[in-house]
Amino acid sequence: MRPKALLLDGYVDEPACFGVPPYISPYVRYVYGVLSYYNFDIRYETADSWRKVDNESAIKESQIIVIVAGMTVPGRYRGGSPITLSEIKRILSIPRKGVLFMGGPILHGYSLKGGTKAIKLDLHGVDCLCYGDIEAVLGHFLKTNEIDPCRKRTYDNDFSLWASLGAEVVIKHPWYPWIIAEIELSRGCDRLKGHCSFCSEGTIKKYEERPIKSISQEVKALYQQGVKAFRLGRCANILAFGGTKNDKGIMPNPNAIEDLYLSIRTEAPDLEVLHTDNCNPLSIVNYPDEAASALEKIATHNTEGDVLSLGLENLDPKVAKLNNLKVDYRGALFAVQLINQIGNHTKRPKGLPALLPGLNFLYGLPGEDRESLDINKRFLEELIYEGLAVRRINIRQVIGGLEGTYFSQIIKDHPSKIKEREFHKWKDWVRKEVDPVFLKRVAPTGTIIKDVKIEEINGHICYGRPLGSYPLLVGVIAEGIKEGDVIPQVMITEHGRRSVTGVPCPIRVNSCSIATYEALPGIGRSRAKRLLLKRPFTNFEEVCSALDDPSLLEPYREELDFSD
């Protein structure tokens, strides 16, 4: 009889890795691969599915128990609820015979939602806290029966084998096949001389890159298991991949980046999503020509709606210097301009841009004051004035107390002087005055959003998202739709503060509801009634003749379907 193992995916969220559904992190896939290699009968549970099962039986019958968890940059999550401290303590209180391993970013500390300080956990009862790589620690134990909690792995053959074997776990995920696989490209920070004060990625002492062959082999294994959405998220800076080290850092290598994307496209020829995440704006500032060429390669080989996350944090010069941040005001502006120039008009018309920037700001940094907020505000106003587009703006509070970061050494002597009410006033201004402007530039009226999965229904509006990196929240005006349904195409008709509204398309002119007519810009209730009373229509000219202003439907001519 095969030995039994329990793998509990408590979800992770850290600067260079995300694992809340629909994302599935590399951590759990690698651990599953190790357990599979040693022929375990593996029970995989997510934090959400775990809450619905017989916990005690699952613990007691397993020879190996592995918990992967940790939120070092916590946010708001729609896809799932990460494991809590009380749930972890409950697990540790259950009598067991098996060996319990715990790993992931949780070893840096644990941040509660809305908290600004990481909690040092009391994990008494864990047999092995994996301060090294959890898959390497587990693999060594299963091979030698020795616990080495600090054991590290490299990008060697064992790792590549574990990564490929671990692809099987996706079919056990509750969201399967609606899954995005977070793919690891590198580890550590590409900034070779110093790191941002707050970032846990900088605590990884060595920057190392994964061979393209290893990446493509894992993508192939995931694709064979039915995964068609991938994000190159497990890296600190996509532009550093395959680059050349010099005095300024790592110079982008456009050819290496193109080789990476082509290898993925080769192994997953019918993929539906190929996105990335982190981009160091300093790479764009230091190497504008090489960065531009690399961005063009990404925009050519990715899928539409991709977002490059730029860690701007704070553009106040004194704060940037104290915290060793990446770019100043002008550097940040140049990075946003260049990404817009290359990615904003590619893969349109009607679809989303190929590539846009996402901006990350932080509150609570050492040395910041009211002037810091004013500088950040002026920056966003300048982006609007210049007609630039930004996919999204993340505003988070710094998490202090993470082990190994510089932040904890300087915060006492240089505390933040921004009052909480001032911060919230600035954040509200961003949400009310800035987000709606960018949203209309990213997805103007008439934009087609593909494959929107419905997550919630409120009256005649169904709310959902496509798969992707920072996907749009779409309110779909439709009838007969259930939670979990995937609508192939939605045409945007209206914009909210942080979401868009649309209708399924093609629009079935002779059978759609009056609410669908009303949702079209300029139609309104009275015109919608007129269309309803005069149908059926056989062609575009007939439907236009039913309106007092036929030009209202001209922008949607190609989306109208008269086949009913």
Can you walk me through this structure?
This protein is an alpha/beta fold. It has 18 helices and 25 strands. The strands form seven sheets. Strands 1, 2, 4, 5, 6 and 7 form a six-stranded mixed beta sheet that branches. It has a five-stranded mixed beta barrel with strand order 19-20-21-23-22. It has a four-stranded parallel beta sheet with strand order 3-8-11-14. β20 and β21 (474-477) form a beta hairpin. α13 packs parallel to α15. The termini are far apart. The model has no long low-confidence stretch (mean pLDDT 90).
Sum up the structure in keywords.
single chain; 33% helix; 564 residues; 22% strand; globular; alpha/beta
Question: Short summary of the structure?
Answer:
The protein is an alpha/beta fold and 564 residues long. Helix content is 33%, strand content 22%.
Work out the helix count: 18
* Helix share, percent: 25-40%
**What amount of the residues lies in strands?**
15-25%
Whole-number mean pLDDT: 90
Parts with pLDDT < 50 across at least 5 consecutive residues? none
Overall number of strands:
25
**What is the gyration radius calculated from CA atoms?**
25 Å
Shape: globular
Estimated structural class? alpha/beta
**Cα-to-Cα separation, first versus last residue:** 59 Å
The biggest beta sheet, please? 6 strands, mixed
